[in-house]
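[User]
Protein folding is very new to me. Any chance you could explain this protein sequence and its structure tokens? I have pasted everything here:
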Amino acid sequence: MSDNSSGTSLSKGKLGTAGIVFFVVAAAAPLLGMTGAVPVAMFLGNGAGASGTYLAVGLLLALFAVGYSAMSQKVTNTGAFFAYVGRGLGRNAGVASAFASIVGYVTIQLAIYGFFGGVMALMVPGLPWYGWALVAWAVATLLSLFSVDIGSKVLGVLMILEVLVLVITALAILVQNAGSIDFVAAFSPDAILAGGVTGTAGIAIAFAFASFIGFEATAIYGEESKDPKRSVAKATFWAIGLITGLFAVVSLAMSTAMASYSNPNAPEGFPNEGLYGYIAEFGGLDPAIGLTNPAGVLQNMADVSLGGTWMSTIMGYLVLTSCFAGILAFQNAISRYFFAMGRGGILPASFANTNSSGAPKNGVILTSVLALVIMISFAAAGLDGIGNLFTWMSAITAVAIMFVEVLVSIAIMVYLRKDGTFNVWKSTIAPLLSAVGLAAGLYLLMSRFNLLGNLAAEGVDPTLPESAWMLSPMGWALVLSPFIAAVIGLVVAAATKNKRDLAADILS
């Protein structure tokens, strides 16, 4: 029987480099990041220096990609992160990283469900947020049971539309303001580090790292690619390059458009000029809860630079398709993690089964059941889709994925140094630098978790530099959840030590 119908193998040769890029860039949801995260990173962080911050974080992640891509040429496994950690640091560490990775991917999918449901409920009031989230859940579950190339085609169309909207808007702004582009204010080290890494610069860095979540999923699709040894490496660099370029250029256009803004009629106590005044007005600043409509910042710029409201209207709908693209991308990623864990003996062997389309059917079902149970729990508790599910889950994701990326960098260095195939740059220097940089970024993310997740201790203003690490009890529980999951993974690894090793069934 062919791989497609054997019931134990993912579909082979279905994805090229472009297909993998569609999945991972869609997972990063660039339009959602530009409309939701960038205005907040600018307003609470380092202002125009956010452009340089995104560029710097992208360069750091490119260092991570050097070793990651080299490792993908040695190990082709849909478990990616935990297969890499298992090869480099041992089976127990690999299983621990798998559990932390699952926390990261499940929570980001839940976050996007919450955002999608919340926005839809505002646009089409017929259903509550969880009603619309369940509609997206049903469609994503159905699509993820089909062949992976069908999903990549859907994501490809949605991703291209997102990128076009962002590029057209940015170019229109930059052309109209060509004489006032300030590269120094956007990209100089002083601008990037304005306020210090423990202050406003640290806030921007935390948001920048969070905006890249999803790019690392390239290796997950290695077994389904046409040329695993080359496609994953190329797709990783393409994904990082596209995400970095979009965030750096579009945020530069945004800060340029806002530089000359003035509003003498701004309410007393509100900023009334420049970048901060613009974001305060069009981002719906509420002194009690912060920006209530950050998407309004870029949408208003689009209206002004392109004339009329047609582009902001398109953006409004594409934010929703961006959300759905992210939901589908993570649905595929999570289910393939469960597939790899079933094949490696960590989960029951039934999770290593595929349907006639080559999709990991039991992994898809478990992914959907987890999402369904948690969404229903939030709805039953009367919690909000955006204010709670999106905010809390996205903050957990950033911590979980960066924690695992640090482990992966160390594991890659250990493995490649022993292997001896690659030069010292790929095997040692780049992975070491990425491990150090990512560890520093993880520290900043965790210290600012009260701001990212809106989980500050009672009476604490999370925007102040001295508020770092001041979390509510719920905040501490959530920020530590990826590490708790890793400990559980160690216990599971010990309990399954006599089963097949992580190296089983890894393709070469």
In short: The longest strand covers residues 285-286. Residues 1-6, 501-508 have pLDDT under 50 and may be disordered.
